[in-house]
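Intended use. Records like the one below are meant for learning the mapping from a protein sequence to its folded structure. Do not use them to infer anything beyond what is encoded.
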Amino acid sequence: MLKLYGFDVSNYYNMIKLAMALKGIEYEAVITYPNQTPEYLAICATGKVPALSTDEGVLVETNVIMEYLDELSPECPLISGSAYERAKIRELMKIVEIYIELPARRCHTEAFWGVPVHEQTKKEVKRALLNGIQAVSRAASFSPYIAGDKISAADIMFLYSASLASSVAKKLFDIDLLAEAPGAKELMAILKALPEVQVVAKDQAAAQPAFSAYLAKAFAKQ
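Structure written out for the chain above:
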């Protein structure tokens, strides 16, 4: 059986959890925080999560795992259509990750845990998020899903990236990030109403206290 390493508060871990739920793929969850211990590095070369253990070896990086799951279970594809349509889904995934998720991550410590970041960093993140959401608005179709009329891997990336980025934008900059992309709020509502998404959200809420305790210890050591 597949083993998925990660923890229920991680947005990247939850992307894979949701993909597997939508595709009906069974797996064993191995709760793991990112670490550089020899034991985990022997499993995952980067020490990060998620990592997916298969009968043939371990795969890392969310985009890679997502494509593997599509090949493993092609009956319910999350990257589908013509060559161009599949490329468009991958393009949207990359735009959301590089220009929304990663910039916002630079301010997660202040937005979610009260650990300040440098003012210059916040200025850079604010500018990057506004540019990023405008890029998404130009590239996406929101009809109603981000790449057309079917849910795709790009929607999963959007759900778990834009939700966190929106919180960062609101808390630190008083910006309604999704309002910058017409159709984005409507899509977020559609995605959050999915039963599979609600199960992931319930697991995330239940895991939050343990993750907060883990972070408190980590910050105390700095």
